[in-house]
Amino acid sequence: MTQTVSRQTHGWALPVLTLLAVVLLVFVVSLAVSIGEISIPIETTVKAVSNRLFGTTFELSRIHQGIVWDYRLSRALVAASSGAALALCGVILQALLRNPLAEPYVLGISAGASTGAVAVMILGFGYGVLTLSTGAFIGAVIAFLLVGLLAAGAGGSGERIILCGVAGSQLFNALTSYIVTTSANAEQARGVMFWLLGSMSGVRWPDVWLAAPIAIVGVVISMFYARALDAFIFGTDAAATLGIAVRRVQIVLLGVTALMTATMVSIVGSVGFVGLVIPHAARFIVGPKHDRLLPTAALAGAIFMVAADIVSRIIIPQQILPIGVVTALFGAPAFAVILYRARRTA
To answer: What Gene Ontology cellular component terms go with this record (predicted)?
Structure first.
């Protein structure tokens, strides 16, 4: 009887929780568009968006129209997309590798993206053909392939994949440091360091058209494999016993994880703790079943990232902090709380 009541309660609570999360996401995106050095009322924001999307003719200054549409809205949408994608990556990796500390950067993708970006910015590889984001994406894919080959040679277990990811991260971080130290001038080194800490200053609409579809595809594919992820919690042998095509699922989901992480890192740089903390927070709210956990983590990651972007723009007057600094400032204490709660409930 108790189980029946619990399921019924959870049945109506989850849609309500999802609706509240969607409303909160819309609210923080609206705040992100309104808050900044120039404060813009939400009413003006609505009019500016309506003018561009629906062809209305509300009278607005060109400055307000440009700030809302060309700068702040695109930035907020990329923040939401990257937060959702990184949180999804954390959920997937923690299930596949059966390690609560697994997150997107465990595969060395972020370090590879950093090396690719530095190669374009400082060494001039592909200059005039490759953008900073394209170089970062290529570096991220190379890093993922290298770590994948190392892991396959080492046996492919979850623990060894993590160790190979750590080794790959150290290798590419060393390459990045070497390039910056030996080839960069002061201005280039400052720009690289700001990008490595996570930066949304150059985000525009072309980045939205890349980040948003990748995040949506990631949600759809991961939801399709939600049952398989449930099975992986108990190990690959248990998953195979339940009829899961273990190797195929691993390849597909690790590939999707690499694609999402590489894309988001190539746009916003290295942003930590989203893929680590958000999955644990979402799991605490809705439980371990992935048909609930995946959408909850995606929404929570989107909200967290947009909120972090707001804080990065207002915490210090006349200065914008790298968003990775903000996520670390909030994410590290949150993760400490999660570990403490897990210790008490163990």
So the answer is: plasma membrane
- Helix 323-345 vs helix 290-314: angle between axes, to the nearest 10 degrees? 140
Backbone angles phi, psi at 326, to 5 degrees: -65, -45
- pTM, two decimal places: 0.87
Residues 6+ apart with CB under 8 A from 219: 84, 88, 294, 295, 298
Query: 186: burial class by Cβ within 10 Å (0-12, 13-18, 19+)?
Result: exposed
pLDDT tens for 167-194 read 888 999 899 989 888 888 887 787 777 7
Contact 34/40 with Cβ under 8 angstroms? yes
- State which H helix or E strand residue 39 sits in: none
Buried b (16+ CB within 10 A) or exposed e, 148-157: bebbeeeeee
Q: Six-digit token pair at 313? A: 């723009």
Please, what are the domains in the chain?
15-345 (1.10.3470.10)
Read off the tokens for 45: 């924001």
pLDDT of residue 35: 86
Residue 195 sits at the vertex; the CA angle it makes with 263 and 107, to the nearest 5 degrees, is: 45
Q: In 3-state terms, the chain is what percent helix, strand and coil (to 5)?
A: 80, 0, 20
Cβ neighbours of residue 58 under 8 Å, at least 6 residues apart? Answer: 47, 48, 50, 51
CB-count exposure of residue 57 (10 Å: 0-12, 13-18, 19+) = exposed
Tokens standing for residue 265? 């890192």
Q: How far apart are CA 58 and CA 55, in angstroms?
A: 9
